[in-house]
């Protein structure tokens, strides 16, 4: 692995016992500033440490109990953006430039599985980056829907820990380094989930801290964000209906909060940190799960896989999280994987993306059944009960590309300045009718998303709710109103609108039942010409 190309400086020290404590390493950079990082052991039995490349020059690595090691590093290359969070803001930002960070993630929980070979993995990473994705969500070996040391969780017959949870197995972690490096080289930021919640019961607190120490030691110098635990609070699946389930969940939440505090203290770069919630306990957001137990830099949501029935709970949870103080960026990290349980079509993927972004989310995460587990369409696949599909087929589902189209369309707008603006369109979606239009914007921009007619209740076999579509509360002046296909990003029609002091403009009717070209979903992207 060429760590220099990824913006990382690595030093290799002496041989040590992989089962022991590799200690820490104090690293002094070319500017004289020092940082202390946890060390780790590679598969060759030698101790290593990694730091972020802060500039060309000489780096001095002082390992615990070993001779200092010097490394001369080249200039820092350009690479993926490191998301960061500023206090009181609802968006993530690029750490280097301060520009808003456009979070558009795909879900690859089993990214380190060898069910995808290295070439196929690299091709998928390149595809997603070209489609407009910026983030990949993955788990550091302690995966969902399986158990430790099962065949499904192995990579080349090796697990992230040695048998009996003796210590992290350097062979697995070296292979994982290569996969993570492939993502970063492709321009994608890894969102690393340390472990699924119930593994804390298997490892215990001290070994889970050791697990997270390995994660931080190897990957904190890369552009990453952390999720302390997946479905935090979840015990083993077999215990879900135990009489004392509430007490078990409460105990796990408290223990994971302590683990998260340790991660924050250990990480020398203070990467943004969150927790992934479990809706089985009515925890739809990080805040629902952790409340005052733990500090999070941004909020993840998980709001179910029940197709259209998940829409209202999702948007209700988003509104609740956005109302919390202090303000935090909110992202739905898991909702309605495309194709899961034979549902959640591409049309729903588009609807979820646009309804969340126009309701104030800081980004969105897509997922596809089969891809999240890198499944092979076999009964032994993790998550097979949700649908029998192989990952290659799942990777090509249309919702992935169309969600990417949404990200690219937003990239041409000042989306971070937009606010939810449901009074700006008529008719407008509400909790009782969630499949009517969504609206957000600023003084000079307005975006309206109209879900597909098939989602709405029929009037005469079809819905007639969109016979009229009125834009309201526009600034007086000249506006361009583009009617855009959210599947392709193509502009079908451009209207030049003159808006008076009343602030209203009605989209000309396209046919007897709708102001839009077809009964499919559509976007209106509106820009005030006077502001240009």
UniProtKB/TrEMBL annotation:
Organism domain of life: Bacteria
Pfam families xrefs: Apiosidase
Residue ranges of every copy of the Apiosidase-like catalytic domain listed in the record: 88-417
InterPro entries assigned to the protein according to its UniProt record, in alphabetical order: Apiosidase-like_cat_dom, GH
UniProt protein name: DUF4038 domain-containing protein
Source organism: Phytohabitans kaempferiae
Organism lineage: Bacteria, Bacillati, Actinomycetota, Actinomycetes, Micromonosporales
């Amino acid at each position: 692995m060429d760590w220099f190309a990824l913006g990382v400086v690595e030093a290799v020290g002496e041989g040590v016992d992989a089962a022991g404590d590799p200690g820490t390493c104090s690293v002094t950079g070319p500017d004289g500033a020092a940082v202390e990082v946890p060390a780790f052991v590679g598969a060759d039995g030698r101790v290593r440490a990694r730091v972020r490349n802060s500039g060309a020059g000489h780096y001095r690595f002082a390992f615990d109990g070993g001779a200092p090691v010097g490394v001369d590093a080249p200039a820092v290359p350009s690479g993926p953006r490191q998301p960061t969070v500023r206090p009181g803001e609802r968006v993530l930002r690029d750490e280097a430039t301060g520009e808003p960070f456009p979070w558009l993630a795909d879900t690859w929980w089993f990214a380190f599985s060898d069910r995808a070979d290295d070439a196929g993995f690299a091709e998928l990473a390149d595809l997603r980056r070209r489609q407009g994705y910026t983030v990949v969500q993955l788990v550091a070996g302690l995966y969902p829907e399986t158990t430790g040391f099962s065949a499904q969780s192995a990579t080349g017959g090796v697990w992230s820990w040695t048998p009996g949870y003796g210590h992290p197995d350097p062979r697995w972690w070296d292979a994982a380094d290569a996969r993570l490096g492939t993502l970063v080289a492709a321009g994608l930021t890894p969102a690393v989930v340390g472990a699924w919640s119930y593994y804390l019961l298997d490892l215990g607190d001290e070994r889970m801290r050791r697990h997270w120490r390995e994660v931080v030691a190897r990957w904190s110098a890369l552009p990453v964000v952390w999720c302390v635990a997946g479905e935090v609070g979840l015990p083993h699946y077999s215990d879900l209906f135990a009489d004392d389930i509430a007490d078990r969940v409460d105990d796990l939440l408290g223990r994971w909060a302590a683990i998260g505090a340790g991660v924050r203290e250990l990480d020398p770069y203070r990467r943004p940190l969150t927790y992934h919630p479990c809706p089985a306990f009515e925890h739809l957001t990080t805040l629902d799960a952790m409340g005052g137990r733990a500090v999070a830099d941004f909020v993840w949501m998980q709001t179910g896989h029940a197709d259209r029935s998940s829409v209202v709970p999702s948007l209700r949870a988003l509104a609740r999280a956005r109302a919390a103080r202090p303000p935090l960026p909110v992202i739905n990290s898991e909702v309605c994987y495309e194709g899961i349980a034979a549902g959640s079509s591409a049309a729903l993927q588009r609807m979820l993306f646009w309804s969340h972004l126009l309701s104030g989310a800081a980004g969105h995460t897509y997922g596809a059944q089969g891809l999240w587990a890198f499944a092979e369409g076999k009964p032994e696949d993790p998550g097979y009960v949700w649908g029998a599909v192989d990952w290659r087929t799942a990777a090509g589902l249309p919702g992935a590309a169309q969600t990417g189209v949404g990200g690219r369309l937003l990239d041409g707008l000042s989306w971070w300045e937009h606010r939810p603006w449901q009074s700006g369109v008529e008719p407008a979606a509400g909790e009782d009718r969630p499949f009517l239009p969504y609206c957000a914007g600023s003084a000079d921009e307005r975006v309206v998303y109209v879900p597909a007619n098939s989602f709405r209740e029929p009037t005469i076999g079809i819905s007639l709710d969109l016979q009229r579509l009125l834009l309201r509360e526009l600034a007086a002046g000249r506006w361009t109103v583009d009617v855009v296909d959210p599947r392709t990003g193509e502009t079908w029609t451009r209207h030049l609108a003159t808006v008076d002091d009343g602030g209203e403009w009605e989209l000309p009717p396209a046919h007897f039942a709708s102001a839009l070209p077809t009964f499919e979903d559509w976007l209106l992207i509106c820009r005030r010409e006077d502001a240009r």
